Amino acid sequence: MSPHSREQQRRKQVKGRSLLAGALVGVGLAAFVDEVVFHQLLHWHHFYDKASSEAGLVSDGIFHAFGWLAMVAGLFLYADLWRRGARHLTAWWSGLCLGLGGFQLYDGTFQHKALELHQIRYGVDLAPYDWTWNVIAVLFLLVGVLLLVRARR
């Protein structure tokens, strides 16, 4: 393998690891904001609303742990890239937007509608909430894709 080919391969790996680190941080950030804002501050729902309040609180704890696990893993991966002087910021931001938007769209479509684990809010017309939730997710995904295209150049 020529030195030029090795350098191209290394750059590709750096972009891929930066993308993964950003995606994990994005998932963790989306989970954190969802948990803190909608579960704890507004009290609109629990992660699992089909049982007792106690079960809802346990499900929130498991969800919160999952979000922090993703965040910590993403930050450790980013720190390793930083230590090696091998991070690619555009790929990282792309991953962050893709992780955040992907998690939010998954939550808004699969968890809210397909599994019916919970809704964004109860006792109100859900359409404006659902549309807002999912449109914001799609916007994050679009920004992530645009940044990914830019990072691949």
UniProtKB/TrEMBL annotation:
The keyword Transmembrane helix applies. The chain crosses the membrane at residues 20-42, 62-82, 89-106, 131-149. Pfam families: DUF2243. It comes from the Bacteria. Keywords: Membrane, Transmembrane, Transmembrane helix. This is DUF2243 domain-containing protein.
